[in-house]
Model the fold of this input.
Amino acid sequence: MSDRVEQTWEKYRGLSPVYQGSIAVLAVMVLFLLADEYLWAVARQWNQSADRYAEILHEGASKEAEFSPRMEATIRAVGPVNIPSTEADGAKKLSRTINSILKDHKIYNDSYDNFGGAKLPSDALTSITSSTGGRIEKVTGRLQFDASPEEALKIISEIESNPEIESISSLRITRMERMTRVTVKMTVEAWIMSPLNAGRRG
Done:
């Protein structure tokens, strides 16, 4: 292998300066093309990646700047979060909330009953329960009333948006024949704080 290199080098030295220069230029061009195809291609890819990362960071900063006012507006609209009450107080509060909504509307044959709900494990939501020594529980109430369709929709909307009520877990609306009223039956739920020793006697 070394003999061939030596022979090639001797032939190159035997060429005229013009040929030597041409071969040197050709060699430089070949090296340039190789660099452009491989090394510089990698460099361009890195530059594109860097530009993309910069764009992502810029978009993230813009979204964060836009997010803060939206978050602040949402917090102001929702208001403070109320800690769940004891079992008895929670049931009374849910009943009072329902009654306060109904008293402003024209309804007929209304009835409301509280009954127990599902209990979460004692180790659930410990960030709330650790300072009270209780467990989270849902109090549930059944509501039924007759009203005009328009009045019924207003009542349902007010109940659904009331912060004291967690959810409407079931809803049934029945049209009364030969009358302009509907019968509404629904189940509402709210969170309460139930003592761990509830139901125990020492």
Q: What stands out?
A: The longest strand covers residues 134-147. Residues 17-78 form the longest helix (62 residues).
